[in-house]
Design a protein that fits this description.
about 325 residues, six-stranded mixed sheet, binds zinc ion, Aminopeptidase
Length: about 325
């Protein structure tokens, strides 16, 4: 994804969110007293799903690794969802393979969970090897790995709502200083050609770069603009589970990411959980679009914070 603008917003943000970290401790493993975690999320599984993707090699569209990973992801979703398939299309002359799974197909009220699964063709922020692709452990694989584990848990837990999972292709092929529409090709395609006609979900959650150690999920401006109610729900759920260290009340940039096109083209309020720390150079961490984006940047404590939070949000419905 790319940064559109850095904006300062919401001076009354803490009041708006209506919840501070005062009840939590500064540890990802702690919970607010007397509020038990009602979900389990297996971090080792999520980590393995990330490792499996990285082991194929960079998932650059058109590559063998990309083809093999598509088959792997569809197989995984077929194990844990009621239905799964690969949506194929062409957008901006690029072949698109979006991987889609659905749980509880008969339920009217639905939640959309999504992440991008492709790898940027070049690690263009890397000083030494900017023309070669990185492993993309965080940028791509982390969100997908967390969602596969959520799907595995949902198969056992039987949520009250329907859940649709979409792994978007070709998110990361954009021009560094180019138009927003050069990015997020898979989600642009899907949001104009959803897998079901008149598709609607109550809300959507996009995961992107959800594995860094000491991640900060600053609230992203488009998420706040389009999906404020659900941002409050997700961030407050994270705090309830003791993950306020990651989901603090900071706010970040305005990002062009897959959720933007879902909001604009389909009108499904969709938020982005994405590592964005205003104290870091680009906001995304030094691994972003460099060869540091490998398994060493994946921290299981962060995966747990994100996975438990999203799973709880689904089970609370
Ligand atoms: Zn990227």
């Amino acid at each position: 994804m790319k940064i559109k603008t850095i904006i300062i917003l919401f001076s009354s943000f803490f009041l708006i969110l209506g919840c501070t970290d005062s009840n939590t401790t500064d540890s990802a493993s702690n919970t607010i007293q007397n509020v038990p975690i009602t979900v389990t999320f297996n971090t080792d599984s999520a980590y393995q799903y990330i490792q499996d993707q990285v082991d194929f090699g960079p998932r650059v569209p058109g590559s063998l690794a990309h083809k093999q990973t598509a088959e792997y992801l569809q197989k995984k979703l077929s194990q844990y969802c009621d239905t799964s398939f690969i949506q194929q299309g062409v957008f901006n002359n690029i072949a698109i393979n979006n991987i889609i799974g659905s749980i509880n197909q008969d339920k009217k009220n639905r939640i959309l969970l999504c992440a991008h699964w492709d790898t940027r063709p070049m690690a263009d922020q890397d000083i030494e090897r900017p023309t070669e692709p990185a492993d993309g452990a965080n940028d791509g694989a982390s969100g997908v790995g967390v969602i596969i584990e959520i799907a595995r848990q949902l198969q056992q837990k039987k949520p009250n709502v329907g859940v649709d999972i979409v792994f978007f292709d070709a998110e990361d092929m954009g021009e560094a200083n180019g138009a927003a529409t050069t990015w997020c090709l898979g989600s642009q395609y899907w949001s104009k050609n959803p897998h079901k006609s008149n598709y609607i979900a109550e809300f959507g959650i996009l995961l992107d770069m959800v594995g860094p150690k000491n991640a900060v999920f600053a609230i992203e401006a488009n998420s706040w603009m389009y999906a404020q109610l659900y941002v409050k729900n997700v961030w407050n759920t994270a705090k309830r589970l003791g993950h306020g260290r990651f989901f603090n009340n900071s706010f970040g940039g305005q990002l062009v990411d897959d959720h933007l096109f879902i909001n604009q083209n389909l009108g499904i309020p969709t938020l982005d959980i994405i590592h964005y720390d205003t104290k870091e150079n680009t906001g995304f961490g030094d691994f972003w679009h460099t060869h540091k984006d490998n398994m060493e940047t994946i921290d299981k404590i962060t995966l747990k914070a994100v996975g438990e939070t999203v799973l709880q949000v689904v089970m609370d419905k």
